[in-house]
Amino acid sequence: MKNRSVVFLAGLTLVAVGSAYFLPRLMAGPRQTNPASALIAPQATPQLVAKQFKFTEGPAVDKAGNVFFTDQPNNKIWKYSTDGKLSVFLEQAGRANGLYFDQQGNLLACADEDNQLWSINAQGQATVLLQDVQGHRLNGPNDLWISPKTEGIYFTDPYYQRTYWTRTAPDAGLGGQKVYYLAKGQRQPVVVDDQLQKPNGIIGTPDGKQLYVADIDANKTYRYQIGPEGKLSNRQLFVEQGSDGMTIDKQGNIYLTGKGVTVYSPAGQQLTHIAIPAEWTGNVCFGGQDRRTLFITASEAVYTLAMRVQGVQ
Q: Where is the SMP-30/Gluconolactonase/LRE-like region domain (predicted)?
């Protein structure tokens, strides 16, 4: 028995030594990786496409992966094709700001020259979808997103004084700066949030169940649940950061703009910040045939960034 006890104790000693050797590694957990490396292609940096604009905004991608964006002060919508070529898609573009493609391939635009929503077909012919709310002039539709479930349009309507307007104040009868929902086939929208200071960037999830809206003046971004008939509920603070424009990838990460591009996980954890050599980054979307090119509108310029992750549209 004595000899067997010695062997047993010796075994414990060896185990203890082994545990002491491995314990720090076990406690450290799995090796941490840089979140940016899971998002951005290896060694990729923002690439300048062109710097010939006055202020770029509203990028949107069509089914082929071409990106359309606006140069609002110059009243043009540009096209950046999948082969890397730039061309003017539409002159006299209604001072378009935010853009988004519907399921039929029409380009919807926040045309704030006359504070309207437009639908533009492939030939560049525009149809006015919305021009007022119960006879009251909109502040200036800024950004929009189309629900894949209902095809209804969510849009933000902040007031930014434009040099090309004759008016110098909002329509008092409108009652403030709000988020609206225009159901498919309807001529009048409904208010889905009237409690934000200045709603701006907007994007929804591809399942049509959640909506993100940035309150740029309050420097906050909120998440909502989308219910029947397009109504919003359960507004929750997503992050303490506002945004001009925004997009989403297939992992559910949210990309906010302003000073560069900041990426947050669906849980609101900051994953990375992408520095852009421009005074202001207005908006962002995923383009290219495989939706792995981040297209960034940044003041007088536009940039691209090769990504590992894909955009949802």
A: 55-299
Q: How far is CA 312 from the centre of its chain?
A: 11
Q: What is the mean pLDDT of residues 44-70?
A: 97
Phi and psi at residue 11, to the nearest 5°: -60, -40
Residues 231 and 219 sit within 8 Å (Cβ to Cβ): no
Torsion of CA 256, 258, 262, 263, to 10 degrees: 10
From CA 21, how far away is CA 101, in angstroms rounded?
58
Contact 197, 215 (CB under 8 A): yes
Which SS3 state, helix, strand or coil, does residue 87 take? strand
| Torsions phi, psi for 226 (to 5 deg) | -95, 125
Distances (CA, A) of 20 to 15, 23, 112, 135: 8, 5, 68, 77
In angstroms, the CA 98 to CA 160 distance is 14
Report the share of the chain in percent with pLDDT over 90: 87
Q: How many CB atoms lie within 10 A of CB 43?
A: 6
Inter-residue contact 159 to 177 (CB < 8 Å): yes
Q: Please, which pLDDT band fits residue 167 given cuts at 50, 70 and 90? A: very high
**Which two three-digit tokens encode residue 222?**
């909120």
- Please provide the DSSP assignment of 145-189 as one string: EE-TTT--EEEEE-----TT-S--S--GGG-S-EEEEE-TT-SS-
Predicted TM-score of the model (pTM): 0.89
Q: Is residue 242 over pLDDT 80? A: yes
Structural contact between residues 258 and 249, judged by C-beta atoms closer than 8 angstroms: no
